[in-house]
User: What shape does this take?
Amino acid sequence: MGGWSCLIYIWYTLLYVNAVVFLFLFIRGLFYDYIRVSVFWGGRVEGA
Assistant: This one.
């Protein structure tokens, strides 16, 4: 059973790391989109 518990532990660790990386990239993408839209609208309002 020792080998199986080790494999399961590694599997869950990889899943956890993948989830954290995915969330980080997803939130960062939303953040960049928000900044880009804000700059775009701000520039349009100032230009007009």
The mean pLDDT is 84. Residues 19-48 form one domain. The CA atoms of residues 4 and 27 lie 34 Å apart.
